[in-house]
Design brief:
Nucleotidyltransferase, domain 5; five-stranded antiparallel sheet; about 45% helix; globular; DNA-binding
Length: about 650
Amino acid sequence: MSSQKPTAYPVARLLLDLRRQGVQTIQRTSGVALVCPRHVRTLELQSRVQVNALALADLLQGLHVTLHLGIPEDAWWRHLEQVAGTGTKPTAARAAVATVLAGKPMLPDTLDEPPAMIPETEPVAVDVETIGGVASDHRVPLPWVDPSELVCVGFSIANCRFAFPASDRANIQRFLGTSNPKVFHNAIYDLVWLLDAAFEIRGSVHDTLWSRAFENGAGVHGLKVTGTFTYAVHLPEKTPDLAKVLTYCANDARNTLSLFNPTSPWCSHPLYRLYQRMAPRVAAISRTGLPFFRDRVEARYAEAVARVAWLDAALGQIARINWRSADQVAHVLEEALPNRWTPGGQRVVDDAALRECEHPAAAVLLEKREVDKVVGTYLRPFLQRDRVCGLITLNAARTGRTSSRYTNLQNIPRSLRTLFGKAGHDWVKLDFAAAELVVAAVVAECSSLLAWFREGKDPHAETAARIFHKPSLSVTAEERAVGKTLNFSLCYGGTARTIVQRATSYGLAFSLPEAATFRTAWFAAFPEMTAWQAETMRQLEDGEPIRSPFGRMWTIPPHSSHERNMALNAPIQSTASDLLLLAADAIWDVLPGPVVNLVHDEVDVLIPKGTWDEAQWRDIARRMAGVDARFPMRVEVAVGPDWGATVEQFVEGVSV
DNA sequence: ATGGGAAGCGCC
DNA sequence: TGGGCGCTTCCCAT
């Protein structure tokens, strides 16, 4: 491939070409659906995912494809090249699209008679249709988003497909309430709605996406080839025709059923079982959301808005530009900025650059950014409802971490956490201490790190002691911070440069050669880490999949340093998050209050004031820490009147 | 008017 | 040339 930048082939142009070739494209809130009237496949692409050329190949061969058009344009270009040959021009792409074939018959838009009797082991596929959401913000309909509404629930059993409007509660409950396995396609979403409508689901929960997530680390936003669909029509937005919605819903349930493979070994895998138990619980957390103190949020909001006005006035004295625009800021600060450039060829004006900048506007702009973020991303959206809800998903991250969307409950600033809580209740925080480092020590079989964890020592301080050649008791706070920086950076492929950057964010300063010395010393102190990283690189080069201790797999092409570092990180991060989910499962039924949030290595619980019982929580924390004997986890337990005011009570776990 | 990409920043 | 997420704003193309 020549180094010359290829001619752009915009997504909209591709869609237009597809449409010309008789491919039906329908705009939906969640993206654009491309519908070909022939067999059938669903895939979704998103920017952070390494997509497979097969995806577009399938599309161009006339499969039924759903694309989330979040991928960068050059990614589309690479696919086009791979599919239609190097140097593909739009005309060649059009020629490839021309291979789209006219279709075979699909399922008709009619409903079957619901069966009177269902054999007990027969899987029942369930699909929910909803309407509403905020299209401009890509927010799908959710119970807490107004306007949003449950329209109908569809079912598919064996060769039968049928649906009921949401008002027909008796019939919906009749089929949800059987002991048959219930099959969903991205279950959390349907579960949130069914839970909100107070339906009771009996039988085990299955999801057609889980096995794929375990097998190749595909998130819901990632590449998702889900198999053969027999009904490939998509529902137009805002259709007033209930009959049409019902048939669509039933046919989609049918599609879901066709994707379900009950004989897959994954269906009996411990992680799959875990997801079956956790999915309804996570849906419940999503629906409940975080309670907050409205008066506090309003006060903080007013304060922040006033501060923004003051800062804007101050900046206006310096230059009358849009200080949110990186381009305009770069133009004003010019020579005062450090000589760094973004991948897109623009001057870097991020916070780190501003801190190095002598210009009088820099300090003011830093504060403006901070307050702007707090107002725009957090406080203003919070005030729109009486609680803060986000859709927590089990399989959006390739590593198996949970994530939270449509308000992210996992990145709320520490400074705002004191706004969350409930009158008459206390907030209990259960937190895995240094979870990823423990997992890394186990996976790499690092004897010294493991010994420290087993003995309950502070690993960062011990690391610092090794690096600075002094007794661990005389390690200073700054030296410990260096140790922490090294531990987190070097496990996953960090360089001397990244160590310096990280250290700067901790308020430490040292030179590149110093960082290089620390790096060498770290690998010398932990020879098993060196060996483990080398072994992972060998697997990558040999094309072997990367595996986690719990059996997740990732096939990663070793093309770039990013992918090599991903291979180092994925099994560690995923194991740490699986441990938290396993721990949450282990303690769920003995918790004295509802779980209100999950933040990667933290579980948050609300309890009525005055019911704190240390012995009870010690027991809970012990169960949590001992969830898997291979991993010497420690759990920190804190309690307080709100999320931000929790105070650590004790630590439970190995050697405590 | 609308949507995608880039930059930036919040968290673990 | 640590990883993993999601959200907002600006800018530009359609």
